[in-house]
Amino acid sequence: MRTVTQASASLTARGISKNFSGVRALDGVDIDLPAGRVTALMGENGAGKSTLLKILSGDHLPDAGEIEIGGETVSFQTPFDARSAGLRVIAQEPEIVPHVSVAENIYLGALPSGRLGRVSQRAIEEQARQDLERFGFGHLLDPARLGVELSPAQRQIVEIVRCLIDEPQVICFDEPTSSLSDHETDVLFELIARLRDEGRAVGYVSHRMHEIFRIADTVTVLRDGRLIGSREVTDTTEGEIVKMMVGRDLTSMYDRDRREPGAPALELEDVTTDDVTGVSLTVHHGEVVALAGLVGAGRTELALAIAGDRPVRSGVIKVEGTPRQFGSPREAIAAGIALAPEERKADALVMVRTVRDNIALAVLGSLSRFGFVKARREKDLADRYIEQLHIRTPSAAQLVQNLSGGNQQKVVLARWLARDAGILILDEPTRGVDVGAKAEIYQIIDELASRGVAVLVISSELPEVLGLADRVVVMQNGRVTGELHHTEATEERILTLAIADHLSDEGATS
Ligand SMILES: Nc1ncnc2c1ncn2[C@@H]1O[C@H](COP(=O)(O)OP(=O)(O)OP(=O)(O)O)[C@@H](O)[C@H]1O
Ligand SMILES: [Mg+2]
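YS: structure for the whole thing
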């Protein structure tokens, strides 16, 4: 096996094509990842970005095309070949072994365990501590934690460190920040700048436009599996990139009706759980309330408590004016509360079932009275959401595991939207979703509210919070630090409430 040893090696791929049983994922794509530069790869959900990276990582064999690294033609039959050639791709959905430590997860496959039998736990934890420190993540992750205990952000950090210990010449990131907080993103961006300055070639996939302008030198756009073009970041605009991605100008993302809120649907009075303290808030019918705050502020924990998935220690949750205590998510669902969770893939999707089955799961009870009617209505329901959310799939009969990351997320969202709940809680509903689809999702949320649904949205994207919400409730350290009507909400005000040190002497709870 050949090893690339020079300090800088560029990657060029020419004419890469890939079909999946009838789906043309890539069609003769050329791409350059020059040494010492960050090349962003953009495109709508299903455009072929992850497929391209999986070909570079040796996870997929291309049907056609050539790849060169440092001027030499390479051919990857397996991920091991790609690694040996100095290429690592940091996966969109990292694989984490649940019941072993962070340290073991980092050195997975690289441990000399076969020969030595047991490697001292302490020794590899110490090694992991040093490696985490070296890449700037030392303060964010304890090497002794177990895989199951990790947040999506921490899983992502494990994956990054796992790949970088190989000292690859070419490094590609597939939506690395979708689960990271702003601080973790800053740390990652410093690291990426360092990798670039060391002369490595960096590929970077993201749906977040502002990140592209912050970190990338060049943007390359794919649409429907084809290369549309490349631009120098200094020489293009957000508008131009969006147009290259979707093939048309996008009108305003946040085009919404202003509604009069109705009666209170959900009321929290002084609710305390293990992770949040004394939270009071109200969501009315026909109203969209955004929960803003930094990652770790307790928003997801609060949502889980409302949905019966965390014990409420004190305080009252009222649904339609009646105090309720939910012993399980099932009871909350029966009371008309639907929660579309943050970590969609693991929690929510049955990967080996079809798109139709996954969407219909939510309403199985109501559709299943007569078998033959059921099949028909399931298909209608699935088709409706495939169209509304532009889920890119050959048909409702496709297996969910064959969809692109963003399209899988749309399937989960479709399921919760199909449920017809009176109270809908959405935790980061547009994470990993492309700009065009975001606009569709915003429109659907708006329509639901207009039909009287009470919507509580957790979002870490401030433009989304401002665009969607009738009211913004800001949390910090498990407490509500402020509430803003949409007419008074600004990014600056929200941020101040999210980070200002209001509670410094009371002792943080989380
Ligand atoms: N194993 C597979 N079997 C069938 N189709 C697949 C498979 N993997 C990917 N596809 C299809 O190939 C196309 C490109 O998918 P890909 O995952 O590369 O998109 P992407 O650009 O990464 O999108 P996203 O932004 O949603 O992550 C999609 O239509 C997808 O459904
Ligand atoms: Mg992808």
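YS: worth flagging: Residues 20, 23, 25, 43, 45-51, 392, 402-407, 434 surround adenosine-5'-triphosphate (ligand 1) (CB under 6 Å).
IM: good catch. Also Residues 97-149 form one domain.
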